[in-house]
Amino acid sequence: MTELQLDLFGDYQSNVALYPAFQRYFRTHKPPFLAVWGKNDPFFLPPGAEAFKRDIPDAVVRFLNTGHFALETHASEIAAAIREFLRD
Fold first, then answer.
1. CA separation (Å) from 20 to 8, 17, 32, 39, 55?
2. CATH label of the domain that carries residue 82
3. Cβ neighbours of residue 81 under 8 Å, at least 6 residues apart?
4. Residue 46: domain span
5. Domain count of the chain?
6. d(CA 80, CA 69)
7. Is the pTM of this model over 0.70?
8. What amino acid positions are annotated as catalytic residues?
9. 34-54 pLDDT, tens per residue?
10. What's the pLDDT band for 71 if we cut at 50, 70, 90?
């Protein structure tokens, strides 16, 4: 698991390089968008989640009282948010 995490961390720069393409797609197509975010995440801060609303004004952004591993601590809340989002 540690090696997998290090691989993901080491490849993060390739993700950052793609941000302009992601943002262009979001601005052009405005897909339905849900971000469920750990408000205490030390790596991906809440302003990063709110930034999606600049490109997709109708984006749904929800913050949970958790950190980076939100699925491990709040799986049921995240699942409920996804179900609600898909129902609407």
1. 20, 7, 19, 24, 11
2. 3.40.50.1820
3. 34, 36, 62
4. 2-87
5. 1
6. 17
7. yes
8. 68
9. 999 999 999 889 999 999 999
10. very high
Task: Give the tens place of pLDDT for each residue, 13-22.
Answer: 777 888 899 9
> In the numeric block, which tokens belong to residue 84?
């609600």
**Residue carrying the six token digits 């995240």:** 78
Terminal C-alpha separation, the chain:
36
**Residue 22 half-sphere exposure toward CB, CA atoms < 13 A:** 10
Closest CA to 52 of 12, 22, 84, 15: 22
What span, in angstroms and rounded, lies between the C-alpha atoms of 28 and 80?
29
d(CA 63, CA 40): 9
Tokens of 64: 């949970």
Question: What are the Cα distances from residue 16, in Å, to 12, 23, 41?
Answer: 6, 11, 18
Report how far residue 23's alpha carbon sits from residue 56's, in angstroms, rounded to the nearest whole number: 9
Smallest Cα–Cα separation from 83: which of 39, 36, 45? 36
